[in-house]
Amino acid sequence: MIDGPSVAILADDLIWATRLDRLVRDAGARPATLRSLGALDVALAAGTRPSGVIVDLTSRAYPGLEAIRRAAAAGVPVVAVGQHDDPAGRDAARAAGAADVYAYRRLFASGPRVMGAWVRGLAGARVSPVATPAGSLRETTGAPAVASARGGLGIPAERHRERIEAAQAGLRGVGGRALLVGVGADLRWLTGYDAVNLERLTMLVVPAAGDPVLVVPRLEAPRASLAPAAAAGIVRLLTWEETQDPVALVSGLLPAAGRPARGRLLVSDRLRASFVLRLQGAFPGVPFGLASEVLRELRMTKDADEVALLRAAAHAADRVVLAIAAGRLVGRPEADVAREVRERLLDAGHELASFAIVGSGPNSASPHHEASERRLVPGEPVVLDIGGALNGYGSDTTRTLWVTGVDDVQPDPEFERLYSVLRDAQAAATAAVGPGVPAEQIDAVGRGIIERGGFGPSFIHRIGHGIGLDEHEDPYLVRGNGEPLRQGCAFSVEPGIYLEGRYGARIEDIVVCGRDGPDVLNEVTRELLVVRGA
């Protein structure tokens, strides 16, 4: 008989309930499956209330957010699970009192570790039934039910109103009729909605004047309604049924747009071609353009909340780099180290681990190397380039390790010289950052030092790219881009030197252009990380 803490599972779907039951049992807790809000109320009112509650947010049989509120108000730790990685849904669940929220895909991929940590916390923790002003719950004793690296960070709903108004002003400035924004970073930036990229049309219609409307398939309406801009009434939700034509709904929102004189329609840059062609058919004779004409500069300048999210993501990635550097490396395949990187990024609070470049020995000379079955050996470098997304905002950092092994095989003199040049180039390029400095100047400073060090032909890519809701976005730090940096621009500074067939190295930080110079978000040393790895 299991003698661990009791966990109530609120889930009306038999498959999900069964899988959650198994996860809880394997973690050493005693599960009890509930099917309704009333059953949860009974469990919470009983003399032996559960030690923790898991709420399935995908059910339509009960209001998931209300279930979280009731469990949290009773002082019981809560975690929630949903079908997709859904930042808007996660924020709403946390505001209701959930310690953390997991997509089913992530939970079942790393469930034993995640559930085990939660159950261990339940054994000695109790949560106060009083919510903090941020809407999260703090414990009176013990460890958190599930530690959230994201804390209370996020974008206030009112910010989305400001962004939409700025976009409308920009639209009028370029003579545009409306923005037609599909799934992607533009939609999330404007509304907070991280929509699933489906063959069904989801589109935000932002007229140059008037109220914006978010057109979504009916089956996505519950998720879309949780988006900050929708929940706050900043955008109106318009759903369409499976047998309706969503493009006709969009065109109906702009009844006078069929006249060319009324202005261009600007579509999001990554809108599916099939949608673009259908929209063009619905608006014959109307010129189309790209939404980036309006949104590019708005998104390129990060506000204080966005910088805080980028900083949190950078610090989480830093912790992963240090953990990998401190662990065993010798004898492990690159792919195994990459798997550990992804798991650690998720454990550090990322909802998405996008990439884990682990390039050892000669593979370190391949900037975008895909981790292979090659095993790490002493006496060679390892380029570790990792990143993902935390609350939607990207992390991207690179450090170079040298693995000595038990025989203490130190870097050879040529590699030491290579790395010294690289470190100086990265430091100088970072120091050159400031408002008004042309983007290409940052590349020129770093590249000049590498060229003078004799490695010019071995630096084969630009020195950096912008980062935010997209992994790569404006501004790009590359020769030919004379656009001046502005306060709030966020980007990587990542020179590299690659001697094909031998070895290579790269150093990468995320940097924000501050009022007086660079604000470097990553904190791990830029010195070569010489580690035993055994």
Question: Could you name the ranges where pLDDT drops below 50 across 5 or more consecutive residues?
Answer: 125-151, 257-261
Q: What is the H level of CATH, i.e. the homologous superfamily of the largest domain?
A: Creatinase/methionine aminopeptidase superfamily
Number of strands: 24
Count of helical regions:
17
DSSP helix fraction: 25-40%
**Approximate strand percentage:** 15-25%
Second CATH tier, the architecture of the largest domain: Alpha-Beta Complex
Which structural class matches the secondary elements? alpha/beta
Whole-Å distance between the termini?
A: 40 Å
Layout of secondary structure:
Blueprint lengths: L5 E5 L3 H13 L3 E5 L2 H9 L6 E5 L7 H10 L4 E5 L4 H10 L3 E4 H6 L1 H14 L1 E2 L11 E3 L15 H17 L2 E6 L3 H7 L11 E5 L5 E5 L3 H4 L3 H4 L4 E5 L5 H8 L10 E4 L5 H10 L5 E3 L1 H9 L3 H23 L7 H14 L4 E9 L19 E11 L2 E11 L9 H19 L7 H14 L11 E3 L6 E5 L12 E4 L2 E4 L3 E4 L2 E5 L4 E3 L8 E3 L3
Parallel strand pairs: 1-2, 1-3, 3-4, 4-5, 8-12, 10-11, 12-13, 16-24
Antiparallel strand pairs: 6-7, 8-9, 9-10, 14-15, 15-16, 17-18, 19-22, 20-21, 22-23
Helix pairs in contact: 2-3, 14-15, 16-17
Structure explained in plain terms:
- It is a single chain.
- With 534 residues, this protein is of the alpha/beta class.
- It has 17 helices and 24 strands.
- The strands form 7 sheets. Strands 11-10-9-8-12-13 form a 6-stranded mixed beta sheet, sandwiched between helices. A 5-stranded parallel beta sheet has the order 2-1-3-4-5, sandwiched between helices. It has a 4-stranded mixed beta sheet with strand order 14-15-16-24.
